[in-house]
UniProtKB/TrEMBL annotation:
GO terms for molecular function: dihydrolipoyl dehydrogenase (NADH) activity; flavin adenine dinucleotide binding. Its main location: plastid. One of its GO terms (cellular component) is oxoglutarate dehydrogenase complex. GO terms for biological process: 2-oxoglutarate metabolic process; response to arsenic-containing substance. Pfam families: Pyr_redox_2, Pyr_redox_dim. Disulfide bonds join 126-131. Belongs to the class-I pyridine nucleotide-disulfide oxidoreductase family. FAD binds at residues 135, 201, 225-227, 404, 410-413. Homodimer. Part of the plastidial pyruvate dehydrogenase complex (PDC) containing multiple copies of three enzymatic components: pyruvate dehydrogenase (E1), dihydrolipoamide acetyltransferase (E2) and lipoamide dehydrogenase (E3). This is Dihydrolipoyl dehydrogenase. SUPFAM superfamilies: FAD/NAD(P)-binding domain, FAD/NAD-linked reductases, dimerisation (C-terminal) domain. It comes from Cannabis sativa (Hemp).
Amino acid sequence: MQYSLSLSTAPAIAGSTHFSRSSGLVPSKPIINLRFCGLRREVFGFSSLKQSASHTPRISTTRAPRSGNLVVAAASSSDNGRASKSFDYDLLIIGAGVGGHGAALHAVEKGLKTAIVEGDVVGGTCVNRGCVPSKALLAVSGRMRELQNEHHLKALGLQVAAASYDRQGVADHANNLATKIRSNLTNSMKALGVDILTGFGTILGPHKVKVGSNTVTAKDIIIATGSVPFVPKGIEVDGKTVITSDHALKLESVPDWIAIVGSGYIGLEFSDVYTALGSEVTFVEALDQLMPGFDPEIGKLAQRVLINPRKIDYHTGVFASKITPAKDGKPVTIELIDAKTKEPKDTLEVDAALIATGRAPFTKGLGLENVNVTTQRGFIPVDERMRVIDANGKLVPHIYCIGDANGKMMLAHAASAQGISVVEQVTGRDHVLNHLSIPAACFTHPEISMVGLTEPQAREKAEKEGFEIGIAKTSFKANTKALAENEGEGLAKLIYRPDNGEILGVHIFGLHAADLIHEASNAIALGTRIQDLKLAVHAHPTLSEVLDELFKSAKVKAHVSSRVSEPVAV
């Protein structure tokens, strides 16, 4: 559930006035609302940098604050380089979420004097209101499903009494995990000497940022301010009975019947949580089928496993034009209209409603007008190197934007990768991130993962460029480890070019799909061809053999091995 989810592998630009493609609300332009966790190992207390055993970091301030509005906290470390005499810092990052964190740590590795500005809490959406707490809730839902599945347990020779849960204990587990990761993330940056400036950052110029009432200078600036839940017009959120993902992650209640507006990643993951805890779920989806962003074949299988057998019903092809919270003993009311004719269709009365319609970039108040930058539906325009583009189409010197704020790919780990790419550039190494190599995952039970193009997207590309595509599939039912776990329900699908062995896309539905996808994503990133992957060795018996069989089943005409040219980033 990190967060946000409604997958569309094609890039889209949208903002506070637009709706998610997979929402049940009237859209004008699509929002990609993918968001997933991409925390680095330093968050868990492990540093990738070598430090002297005798070196003891000390808390210090880089520059004396002129008022109480700016708090500068850092552990002075020899690993954090010295800035040019002309600037306070080599690199200043506005936003301390996963993207900002990844950029900061890589900057220190490169010897840059680095500071990060955070106006809320360190960790951003992912750690505090997204992928981290959601994984805690999904861990509970996974355990509950195992304990409630008598047929599955009997097949393994197990007998377990009826499972139950403590709602507050589940909520505490999610909150405690977020607190721990937030603390580890903060400490990791302090230990490496990254200065954490507390306050809202406003850009005054290419090298100047106002933090509180203070002005800080830096040679280069990265904007990494992330996003917030998007709530369309006509919906009244009270935080109790009509909620966003921010509220849902607190698990203040488990309603008997909850409507989820949008059947993308957020909606799917929360349906997994709520149904495992006993709720009935109703999806409201604007398009004619559920899970519209997935590869159609995978989506069809996922619906058969994740939707049909559970206490879930759905309305497709409709918009939720108005949602009113419960009040004075009356239930939540949801007015539905036909997606095409806009005629009234139905009215739902439920105990609660979760708005899973995507996310909007958080870019207001950044002072973009001071560098002549105009947002596009809230998103900051950038080129393939994350360099900010002004209103005249020209690059703004020394200012970059990463993550949800630029709208290229709204995933936490994509933000981190973009940040690392920017650091490579400012330290003298040109780098363009291949967004088609970035994987995505939905942490339902079982999981869904993907990288690259869906089959319809691949066929469209093939028709335009004049090549054929091949499709290979393998079932989890043929995997020994999956059968040992009694988890044979699953499919892996490979979309490729038979003429040269290039991987165009891989989609997996099944046990630990989120972990399995990385062999494919790394192959795409490195330009590795299928004919080389056929020779790779996988331990037996492991789930990784699902990918092994998948690559071996591909019919590649070319036998010559050569690296695939890296495509231009999306």
